[in-house]
UniProtKB/TrEMBL annotation:
<feature type="site" description="Could play a key role in the communication between the regulatory and the substrate sites">
    <location>
        <position position="100"/>
    </location>
</feature>
<protein>
    <recommendedName>
        <fullName>Glucose-1-phosphate adenylyltransferase</fullName>
        <ecNumber>2.7.7.27</ecNumber>
    </recommendedName>
</protein>
<dbReference type="Pfam" id="PF24894">
    <property type="entry name" value="Hexapep_GlmU"/>
</dbReference>
<keyword id="KW-0548">Nucleotidyltransferase</keyword>
<dbReference type="Pfam" id="PF00483">
    <property type="entry name" value="NTP_transferase"/>
</dbReference>
<comment type="pathway">
    <text>Glycan biosynthesis; glycogen biosynthesis.</text>
</comment>
<keyword id="KW-0320">Glycogen biosynthesis</keyword>
<dbReference type="GO" id="GO:0008878">
    <property type="term" value="F:glucose-1-phosphate adenylyltransferase activity"/>
</dbReference>
<feature type="binding site">
    <location>
        <position position="140"/>
    </location>
    <ligand>
        <name>alpha-D-glucose 1-phosphate</name>
    </ligand>
</feature>
<feature type="binding site">
    <location>
        <begin position="220"/>
        <end position="221"/>
    </location>
    <ligand>
        <name>alpha-D-glucose 1-phosphate</name>
    </ligand>
</feature>
<keyword id="KW-0119">Carbohydrate metabolism</keyword>
<comment type="subunit">
    <text>Homotetramer.</text>
</comment>
<keyword id="KW-0067">ATP-binding</keyword>
<feature type="site" description="Could play a key role in the communication between the regulatory and the substrate sites">
    <location>
        <position position="139"/>
    </location>
</feature>
<dbReference type="InterPro" id="IPR011831">
    <property type="entry name" value="ADP-Glc_PPase"/>
</dbReference>
<dbReference type="InterPro" id="IPR029044">
    <property type="entry name" value="Nucleotide-diphossugar_trans"/>
</dbReference>
<comment type="similarity">
    <text>Belongs to the bacterial/plant glucose-1-phosphate adenylyltransferase family.</text>
</comment>
Length: 451
């Protein structure tokens, strides 16, 4: 017989059912036979682990002082806020953040912005710094090793399901739908996958699936990526998001820890080694993505390069950005500085404080300068006669008089000298700053100190 799903709802008040593994739009009840799914209970029994220990070296000097998940994004947020907010909005209130590289600013941010959950009712965001907890006394050797070193802490929370998340991507996802499908499919592990052009998939961990989206192959950055059945020009790329049955996770981590030639990484070792041995399900991101109003293209960005980071931030100033930060149904939570509103002063023909097609955060002052197509974080000052064009300016920076910046990323706390021009002469810029492949110029306090 068939057993109906309990009438549960997500953060947005929509009924929760398990999405079909066969195709979009199919009746989820086609997958539920002789099964009783209480999604609210499942979410309470889920422990989310956010892996936030990486440096993100492709961001160069932006991560000299803090890890990639702590890098500012979108004017007032940090990258780590996106997976944590997804957990909150999905109904997962037991979260642990695993840190390692230069974790000071990340820890401060979590303590200040994520301390509002009630531990008395089993809600929390715990910080788990790397502690060399195994007999080998090593720092984290890979994503799987990071989880393995914390098995004692994980077991203490007694989860039934463990949701493992990368802490350095920008996206909105309803994890409750991922959990529901995982349970309904009877899988030991589910891997969230984004659909990408096959020609662009060589830089990802690529997933090969059968007609029911069960994983039959997992290849790390293959030269010849597998295609999606029925779609020869598309490939499933792993998002670094996994759901494990807890007992199964404990066992495979124990086995992997004993493998001397393993890199102890989920994408390189754990998942490939389990293909054909366990039930591993590919979860289509299209089935759990939280779409921006009027858009049906899933939004997921790895902002791990200067070009990708600049593009994702600049997209936010467009009329209809791909990522909707104004969506009150799926808010992004963060620690918010208590600063006054942005201010614009001077309005004469000689100098006019103004901003067009731009986003300016609290505490900004545009004093007789011009801002165009740019995103300014908190406490940025743009002084008289200066121009900021198509540029991302991180917090507490000061743009000197008569300066002109085009297509730049200005690091936190920069003091741009009076009259400095950047973004108009690539050869000259490369002598003083770091210029990306597409011509984005990174300016940091260290660069400015050498001028």
């Amino acid at each position: 017989m068939r057993v109906a799903l309990l009438p549960c709802t997500s953060y947005k008040g929509e009924p929760l059912t398990a999405p079909s593994r066969r195709h979009e739009g199919a009746d989820p009840m086609d997958e539920i036979t002789d099964y009783h799914l209480d999604i609210n209970r499942a979410l309470r029994e889920t422990l989310a682990l956010v892996l936030a220990g990486g440096r993100g070296s492709r961001l160069h000097d932006l991560t000299n002082r803090e890890s990639k998940p702590a890098v500012p994004f979108g004017g007032k947020y940090r990258i780590i806020d996106f997976p944590l907010s997804n957990c909150m909005n999905s109904g997962i209130r037991r979260m642990c953040v695993l840190t390692q590289y230069r974790a000071h600013t990340l820890i401060h941010h979590i303590q200040r912005g994520w301390g509002f959950l009630k531990a008395e009712i089993g809600e929390f965001v715990e910080l788990w710094p790397a502690q060399q907890q195994t007999i080998k006394e090593t720092w984290y050797q890979g994503t799987a090793d990071a989880v393995h070193q914390n098995l004692e802490l994980i077991r203490a929370h007694d989860p039934r399901y463990v949701l493992i998340l990368a802490g350095d991507h920008i996206y909105k996802q309803d994890y409750s739908k991922l959990i529901a499908q995982h349970i309904a499919s009877g899988a030991d592990c589910s891997v969230a996958c984004v659909d990408v052009p096959r020609a662009d998939a060589t830089g990802f961990g690529c997933v090969d699936v059968d007609a029911d989206d069960m994983i039959v192959g997992f290849l790390e950055k293959p030269a010849n990526p597998p295609s999606i059945p029925g779609h020869p020009d598309r490939t499933f790329a792993s998002m670094g998001i996994y759901v494990f049955n807890a007992d199964y996770l404990y066992e495979i981590l124990r086995i992997d820890a004993e493998e001397a030639d393993s890199q102890h990484d989920f994408g390189r070792d754990i998942i490939p080694s389990q293909v054909g041995r366990a039930r591993i399900k590919a979860h289509r991101f299209t089935q759990s993505c939280v779409y921006s109003v009027g858009r049906r293209e899933p939004y997921w960005r790895d902002v791990g390069t200067l070009d990708a980071y600049w593009a994702a931030n600049i997209d936010l100033v467009s009329v209809t950005p791909a990522l909707d930060l104004y969506d009150t149904d799926w808010p992004i939570w963060t620690y918010q500085m208590q600063r006054p509103p942005a201010k614009f002063v001077f309005d004469t023909d000689e100098r006019r404080g103004m901003a067009v097609d731009s986003m300016l955060s609290a505490g900004c002052i545009v004093s007789g300068g011009k801002v165009s197509g740019s995103l300014l974080f908190n406490d940025v000052r743009v002084n008289s006669y200066s121009e900021v064009i198509d540029t991302v300016v991180l917090p507490m920076s000061d743009i000197g008089r008569h300066a002109r910046l085009t297509k730049c990323i200005v690091g936190t706390g920069c003091r741009i000298p009076e009259g400095l021009v950047v973004g108009e002469d690539p050869e000259e810029d490369a002598k003083r700053f770091l210029v990306s492949e597409t011509g984005i110029t990174l300016i940091t306090p260290e660069h400015l100190a050498r001028l």
